[in-house]
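REQUEST ID: PR-0412
SUBMITTED BY: lab tech R.K.
PRIORITY: routine
TASK: structure prediction, single protein chain
INPUT:
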Amino acid sequence: AGNLLAATNNTTATWDRARFQKEVRHRIVQNVIWTMSAGGEHDFSGFELDYSLSFNRSEQTYPTRYQLRYRSSLRPEVSYDYTNFDEPAISLFQTNEHLDLGAYAFRQFDEREQDTIKDEWAARANVTFQGGLFGQAAEHRFGASARLTDATTDENRWRSRDNSFAPPLGLAGMLGDQPSQNFGYFLGNKFDQGRQGEWHGSFRSAVRQPGNVRASQSITGDYSVDENIYAAYGMTEFDFGNTSVITGLRVEHTDFSSTAFRFNEDTDEAVANSNSRQYTNWFPNLTVRHEFSENLVGRFALTRAISRPNYPDVVARISAGDTAPLTVRRGNPDLNPTLANNVDAGLEYYLETLGLLAVNVFYKDLEDYEFTLRTPGEFEGLPATFVQAENAPDGYIRGVELTWQQGFSFLPGLLGNTGIFANLTVTDSEMDIGRTVGGRSAFPLQGQSDTVYNVSLFYETDRFNARLSYNDRSDYLDSVSTSGPDFDIYWEGRSQLDFTAAYEFTDSFELFFEAKNLTNTDGVRYQGVRERVYEREAFGYTLFLGARFSY
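STATUS: complete
OUTPUT:
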């Protein structure tokens, strides 16, 4: 809120009568995964049979997810200077009106619940027998599989601006004694989690009354999906001297249906919005492996692959944020799966102690590549950005990958247990979205960096292994804006250092340790050019300690 004053440029601006607020955001998410599987293998006279049946259930719940919002009555003049675009100078953090707790009044309380449950049955069976082809010995395989998936998301939202739900101690009474520092900005003291939990528990049931229900967003966030995928394949593997050939064909039939809802504000009724589709895809495959010598191997492959949309992207749902300017995510029932026709070729040279030097080139011709489109608009009377997945009819990615893997067993003592794994991938990519958006129709592939490299140093013995890994990727497109290239969002490339270690006490018990992002690398999103920072975040490092059992 406030009025933008006239004296502005690319790096500085000033508003009068600016408005600001503080929020308590508390979120607990629980993920539970259940898996059961059974199978068998049989060796009959003349053929082999293997089969499996599995069931998987994943549950994601948010038992606690709320926001408590206070707004200040102060309306100061606020300016910023983006000369340092990672940490712009904001006048508020010199004048400190945001620290005047007596000026804050209760504004509103938002609470959300969301449960997502996904059940999946999978079954497969394969038959293998020996035969011949073109006068050569050959192995033939045939198989069939089915994957039956049901998924549901149920979302409920409440909102109240009734002062009776405000914490009786006021904003100051909710704060503890620990300072809150966000990069170079002092925000005040952190919220006391104990007081916050006490307050929330005291009226949680009271706020969940019919008059506080946000019916439209509770209903439009719900959806259910049924996706059944049936497949069958046949393949043959045979040798011609030093050349091995695998050829085959796989067919997949997909039966998809979903239901989401639209809310009629006039009648207070939910209207089901269902969609369904069926499609069949064929996936031929040809893979050739040739041994030029004992250590030098060449590979060539022609393949076809599919990538199906994520369920929230393809169902006709709407999910809006809670804070203006709103981000509103819309499902797209017309979204198609992405198909890729792939050509891969490479050379591999095998070194002593399981080492490898490899170079591979690849080209992928893409059909209906999925990308994210951002469109400014208005939602429920508030400014909003609509985010929706779309298909680019044509696209490609081509590149080269270099790999070096080697154990240093030739070194003396403990150094003989060390080794290295390193790879570098350089790519060029483009998608043509089939229409003009923001003055353009062609873009680099979303999510695709031009360069990616990884370097890992490892230490391995019979029982112990440790790995120190450094990986890096260049900038990549995150989403396309209808407002033009200045509003396209990119992720800045980032580097990360990780460490993992594990010790196997017995054949069935292992203790492991993982340390992620030891370099505490920032994640930065920007609009158009790096100087226009859209988001900057840093979460520090993450440590895992765990055990694995098998029997």
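NOTES: The first helix runs from residue 92 to 95.
REVIEWED BY: pending
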